[in-house]
Design brief:
Layout: H1 10-23, H2 37-46
């Protein structure tokens, strides 16, 4: 999706974070090394310069 100019969906983004955490063997407070939707919302709020999901036209 990102290659076509579309942002990642929330679930895809959380999967990406989980993959990074597992691959790099980082310690996290996440259950099953996967962030929650609440974490995602707070992350997007803190990082407003990141473009969220855009509708395909």
């Amino acid at each position: 999706m990102a290659k076509r100019g579309m942002g990642l969906r929330a679930g895809e983004f959380m999967d990406l974070v989980q993959n990074i955490v597992v691959t790099e063997k980082r310690k996290t407070p996440f259950t099953n090394n996967r962030p929650s939707y609440e974490w995602y919302k707070r992350f997007m709020e803190r990082n407003k310069d990141i473009v969220g999901l855009r509708r395909e036209v």
